[in-house]
Amino acid sequence: MKAKTREERNAAFFAKTNWQLFLILLLMVACFFTWSENVVITRGIKVVGRLGMLYASYYVYKSIINYGAVDSLKVHNPLSSAFYGIYLLIGFASFMWSTNVGYSSLQWFMTSQTLVFCYYFVKSLYLLDHFFPEHPIRMFNLVGNTSFLLILVFVVGMWVNPDAFYRLTHGGEEARLGGYMMNPNELGMLAGIGVAGLLFDIRRNHRRVWTVVKLLVLFYGLMATGSRSSLIGALLIIGFHVLQSEQKQFAIAAIIVMALVSPIAIYKVVLKDGDPERMEEVMSMTGRLPFWQALINEGLPREPLLGFGFMRIDYKEFFQSTHTYPGKMTHNTFMQVLMNLGFIGLTMVFFQIVFTVRGILAENNEKKLMLFSMLIPIVINSFTEFGIYGESNYGILFYQLVILYISFKASSIITPAQRVHLRKRRPDLTV
Question: Which of 201, 342, 405, 413 is the most exposed place for a label (fewest CB within 10 A)?
């Protein structure tokens, strides 16, 4: 039997690693869904599943090192990750004054666990970039395919079992894709992230016909969620790609699609067919504006500096003003930080975002476009739902991927032990 060449072994290793990273990310995101109405099963999936995917991401990271790499990466854009760490430290300290320590600690540990998962996931990609520059694995492809497959499950489910996959709102007058398994706005955000990832496959002419089919499924699912913010985000992503594109054919095709889809989509989803009663709802952001006003006027003065504790917005389980609905979360990630960690926490978050954006702007064009494309749907979602600093959700996971993707840089400095490891594993590599 003929021995495999180094190129053949590398190709097999890349294919295996690509599938591993895809499945790990897919299952990690899937663990944020409520797949069963049984509380015990749901908690088991969320806790055991996420911890399992954390270990799996570490396993892939170690397998890349064992195959022929060393972790010689150095810190890059330290202020972005440092301020995120400060935010988590303040959250941890808030256990001392939290109005529900058990809930605060659970949310904090889930957010921290996701961060560790992202740490090894992103490091795996960086090690591949540095030691195997010819590898075909791309983060935008992994993110796009993950989102597509999960949205596809819901699109198929809405036809096979609509009772489970639809959520009735407005007194049963409107059915939105998501069911009890996922908030429709969060599901729409996931579709937007999928669009952000797969547009890069179009740009690099990677299986273009199949990718167009995936994008159509994502838009179909997005429309079915009825999420106004997610639709706006998806259209902004396409516009952002068009502005940045140097490919005239891609730009023309994208403009034509937007011109055909946008008027119908905005009329149906954003303006709700022009219904006057629904338009009034749109103007008040489904009651969110008076709720935010009540939070600032009544809730914030009680604990202005340090808040009520990590992911807590009142002394009780729900905040309720005289003229607003009761709410356990603020439906705005920045308001959420203000209420649970006060002005001190909000200041740390503000600087963290500033340094993250500054770090992205310093990257090369493709990486910059990819990260901003991912940010668009999750930041827009942050103004109306859980968001990047809210209760544990996969929007936080994607934001942590963005932060860590600008936090490392290849280094030419390696230790003697690492040098020996490379000589043993990679005799073809000049150390």
Answer: 413
What is the rounded distance in angstroms from the CA atom of residue 82 to the CA atom of residue 114?
A: 16
C-beta atoms surrounding 259 within 10 Å:
9
Using DSSP's 3-state secondary structure scheme, residue 408 falls into strand
Show the tokens assigned to 76. 């890059």
- Look at the block and give the residue holding tokens 């978050």: 349
Under 8 Å between Cβ of 317 and 283 = no
* 74 CB-contact burial (10 Å; exposed 0-12 / middle 13-18 / buried 19+): exposed
C-alpha 313/C-alpha 303 separation (Å) is 10
Distances from the Cα of 355 to the Cαs of 240, 335, 384, 407, in angstroms?
21, 20, 23, 11
Backbone angles phi, psi at 208, to 5 degrees: -60, -45
Residues 6+ apart with CB under 8 A from 159: none
Nearest to 401 by CA among 82, 198, 133, 120: 120
Could you tell me which of 11, 394, 364, 325 has the C-alpha nearest to residue 182?
Answer: 394
* Contact indicator for 254, 241 with CB cutoff of 8 Å: yes
- For the segment 277-319, what is each residue's pLDDT rounded down to a tens digit? 555 555 556 668 888 888 898 889 999 999 999 999 999 888 8
CA–CA dist 211, 202 (Å, integer) = 7
Give this prediction's pTM.
0.91
Q: State the amino acid at position 242 in one-letter form.
A: V
pLDDT in tens, 117-157: 999 999 999 999 999 999 999 999 999 999 999 999 999 99
What are the boundaries of each domain within the chain? 138-287
CA distances from 57 to 48, 54, 115, 124 (A): 14, 5, 12, 8
Q: Which residues of 10-36 are buried (b: 16+ CB within 10 A; e: fewer)?
A: beebbeebbebbbebbbbbbbbbbbbe
Distance (Å, rounded) from C-alpha 54 to C-alpha 117? 5
- The owner of tokens 């049984």 is 38
